[in-house]
Amino acid sequence: MLPCDRLFRDLPQLLRPNDLLVFNNTRVMRARLFGHKESGGRVEVLIERLIAPDEALAHVRASKSPREGSRIRLAEGACLQVLGREGALFRLRACDLGYAELMDAYGHLPLPPYIQRPDDTTDDARYQTLFARHEGAVAAPTAGLHFDEAMLARLADMGIERAEVTLHVGAGTFQPVRTDDLDQHQMHAEWLEVSEAVCAQVERTRSRGGRVIAVGTTCVRSLETAAAGGSLVPFRGESRLFIRPGYRFRVVDAMVTNFHLPESTLLMLVAAFSGYASIMNAYRHAIAEGYRFFSYGDAMFLTRAEVEGDLSG
User: Fold this and answer.
1) What's the EC number here (predicted)?
2) CA angle 150, 251, 283 (to 5 degrees)
3) Cα of 259 vs its chain's centroid, Å
4) Sequence ranges of the domains in the chain
5) Which of 207, 206, 197 is nearest to 166 (CA)?
6) Do domains 8-28+123-303 and 32-108 have the same CATH topology?
7) The architecture CATH gives domain 8-28+123-303
8) What is the 3-state secondary structure (H, E, C) of the chain?
């Protein structure tokens, strides 16, 4: 498959009536908090997942890891208590205010590490998709950022339906694979939900000859996780699904996705989907043509490579 240059406004030309677009409706939390240890050392907290209104699992960056039972002081007397560790994450309890109130009052939007500037008020809107409803992500499902109301209206006029899943993107999405043996890679867990209504929409799309088109890799992981048993069924819970070359796709026929970091699981996912050679050609072309990469960058429309996608179950 040879790459072809287009503008995003050309997307309707690549779609067909009866296709189904699937979006991720997660909303990015103001999940970065700054404070000090009781000893005075500076601390940066990045909330990975809320597990109760007053408890969270979080990454903690400090000159020395805080001890169990100690407290992290935030602004104006607010604090977090260190309950313990779960692997690389710390379990933190909000002492007085709940996390919703803490993040609203003191939180910062966690821009990706390759955006090397502090967040500002414009990011509150620019780093959320039109579909952002269910708060819980620490990164935006960036393929959805390309869509505006005018594009959605054009697609609706064409007879293209829309469905929504929820996957709360975790900080692990930015982590490179650090082992040559992919069987040894520990995939980060992310919470997701695929509803019964979405499963019914997919079934109706199939019955009328339409395609299921995922907007972003998070939607791919959501749908394929829900179909891991062989057919698509409702799913609610955590997924560690690692999609890499050789994976057999059960639901998704095409996808819209941004360009991804080298050595990332997301790059492996798109290589599994459209074929390694096709993806490498696309990336070489994008570099040669000066495409912009990552969160606020350019996008690809990919179709599934049937042969490579059917190598194994």
Assistant:
1) 2.4.99.17
2) 65
3) 13
4) 8-28+123-303, 32-108
5) 197
6) no
7) 3-Layer(aba) Sandwich (3.40)
8) CCCCCCCHHHHHHHCCCCCEEEEECEEECCCEEEEEECCCCEEEEEEEEEEECCEEEEEEEECCCCCCCCEEECHHHCEEEEEEEECCEEEEEECCCCHHHHHHHHCECCCCCCCCCCCCCCHHHHCCCCCCCEEEECCCCHHHHHCCHHHHHHHHHCCCEEEEEEECCCHHHHCECCCCCHHHCCCCCEEEEECHHHHHHHHHHHHCCCCEEEECHHHHHHHHHHCCCCCCCCEEEEECCCCCCCCCCCCCCEEEEECCCCCEHHHHHHHHHHCHHHHHHHHHHHHHCCCCCCCCCCEEEEECCHHHHCCCC
Nearest 5 degrees, angle CA 74-CA 41-CA 105?
A: 15
Is the domain covering 32-108 a CATH 3.30.70.2640 domain?
A: no
Cα separation, 299 vs 153, in Å, equals 20
Q: What is the pLDDT along the chain (313 residues), one digit of tens a residue?
A: 578 899 999 999 999 999 999 999 999 999 999 999 988 899 999 999 999 999 999 999 999 999 999 999 998 789 999 999 998 899 999 998 899 999 999 999 998 877 888 898 888 888 999 999 999 999 999 999 999 999 999 999 999 999 999 999 987 766 666 666 666 566 778 999 999 999 999 999 999 999 999 999 999 999 999 999 999 999 999 999 999 999 999 999 999 999 988 878 889 999 999 999 999 999 999 999 999 888 888 999 999 997 443 333 2
